[in-house]
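re: ur question from the group chat, yeah i did fold both. here u go
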Amino acid sequence: MPVISMFYGIIVRMFNNDNQKHHLPHIHVEYQDFAAVVAIDNGEILQGELPPRARKLLLAWMEIHKDELSANWQLAVNGEHTFKIRPLD
């Protein structure tokens, strides 16, 4: 599963052809011992959990990179390679 960004211990991944289970554009996020699936459009946690601080950082990053996340999602569901997205500074 390709890593598209990493910042402050948060790892963000996006699977290719991964629109069957959740049926929404989403990312897979890992932070320490936590893992979650997060909707791209509204930041809702679809599965799993994240600590509040990590979720807040992730949501800020997602807001900044919403267009890039959407573009990556289109690539991923078409089975194409996704691109790296700049981490949160």
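okk and heres the other one u asked abt
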Amino acid sequence: MPAKTTRARSKKLVVPAPVVQEGPQRPDVVLLTNEQLWSDLQNRVKVHNYEFALAVRDLKNTIEFTKAQFAKVSS
């Protein structure tokens, strides 16, 4: 009796087409002018100077308070 042979069925592979990705899209924003940036910087420096002056004042008050408390304890 002859041997049975089976034929392998070839399956067609479906290869998806490569996805072409576009580069990053530029956001739709309004850019500030140099004058606006300069004005913003000046305002931020004013706020910084004000807050720094308050911090220095608070630090001086803290030092004076600590000196007074130390003098009470030392006496």
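fwiw on the second one: The chain has one helix and no strands. The two ends are 122 Å apart (CA to CA). idk if thats what u expected
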